Amino acid sequence: MWDGDSRITANSPENIEAFTWYQSHAEKLGVNNLRTFGQTFGNFASPQSPFMAGKVAMVLQGVWLYNFIEKFAPGMEWGVAPFPSVDPERLPNVCIVESDILVIPRGARHPREAFEFMEYVNSPAAIEKLNLGQRKFSPLREVSDEFTVRHPNPYISVFMDLAGSSNACHVPKITVWQEYKDEMGVSASRLDAELTTPREALGEVQERVQWKFDRILRRWNKVKDKRLNEWSRYDPE
């Protein structure tokens, strides 16, 4: 999605290949057929969710989906496996890693006490108790055997193994990520309607998002240069 420095890579060959595969479904099944089918989908957190209603056979989801299955489709037969990879031998167990976080906001009245609470929550016993209640898994490297035995999700070990995979990844840590994500979504919708080609759509994303990213980087560099100049004049003597 980006080079890790200053360039996004929306129109990379890999993304073009992925979007070409994505658009092939509209070409194969028909745009109107897909739209009509999609209109029958209900809300995600409801019994009308397409997966829990049996309209969709496979979804890319996280450990939290167990809570919705238990609530809205308790009799449903389901299983968990790593999402298919473009190259299972070279890139096994590819997954997206996300997390809940605790923070102390600026201006908090009791930061020391807040940190003590955060320290407690991240202790092995407390975090396992919390995650058992949330039906998620511990972010700590070491987990007790009792945790997996007591966990209500029968596939919790699969999720834990995936999170520890060397091919686990996260969304890009860039300030324009939300705009980037939105632009990719718009491009996908245009591909659904067969209004553009993958190369054209991703080329437009590349141009628009890179322009926004460049503007932010220029502003950051000015601030950085100013601070470096100020520090260079500082004489510790």
Give a structural overview.
- By secondary structure, the chain is mainly α.
- The chain is 51% helix and 2% strand.
- The protein is built from nine helices and two strands, in the order H-H-H-E-H-H-H-H-E-H-H.
- It is flat and about 65 Å long.
- The model has no long low-confidence stretch (mean pLDDT 91).
Task: Note the main attributes of this structure.
9 helices, D-Maltodextrin-Binding Protein, domain 2, 2 domains, flat, two-stranded parallel sheet, single chain, about 50% helix, about 240 residues
Kindly provide the radius of gyration, computed on alpha-carbon positions and rounded to a whole number of angstroms: 23 Å
> How would the global form be characterised?
flat
DSSP summary: helix tally: 9
Low-confidence segments, ≥5 residues, pLDDT <50?
none
Estimated structural class: mainly alpha
Order of helices and strands: HHHEHHHHEHH
Number of domains: 2
Level-2 CATH architecture of the largest domain: 3-Layer(aba) Sandwich
Q: What gap, in angstroms, lies between the N and C termini?
A: 47 Å
Task: Please summarize what this structure is.
The protein has helices at 13-29, 31-38, 65-72, 111-121, 124-134, 145-150, 156-163, 177-192, 198-232; strands at residues 95-96, 168-169. The protein has 237 residues and is an all-alpha fold.
Question: How is the topology of this model organized?
Answer:
Layout: H1 13-29, H2 31-38, H3 65-72, E1 95-96, H4 111-121, H5 124-134, H6 145-150, H7 156-163, E2 168-169, H8 177-192, H9 198-232
Helix pairs in contact: 8-9
